[in-house]
Amino acid sequence: ATLADLRTRFPDWLERLYELYGVLESGIPFPIAERPNPFEVFRAEVIDSDLAMPEALLIAVMGDVWVGLTEFRRVEGEPTWLAQELTGVAPSHRKQGVATALKVTGLTWAREHGYHRIRTWNDSRNEGMLAVNNRLGLSRSHAIVQYLLELEG
Question: Would you call 74 helix, strand, or coil by DSSP?
Answer without folding.
Answer: strand
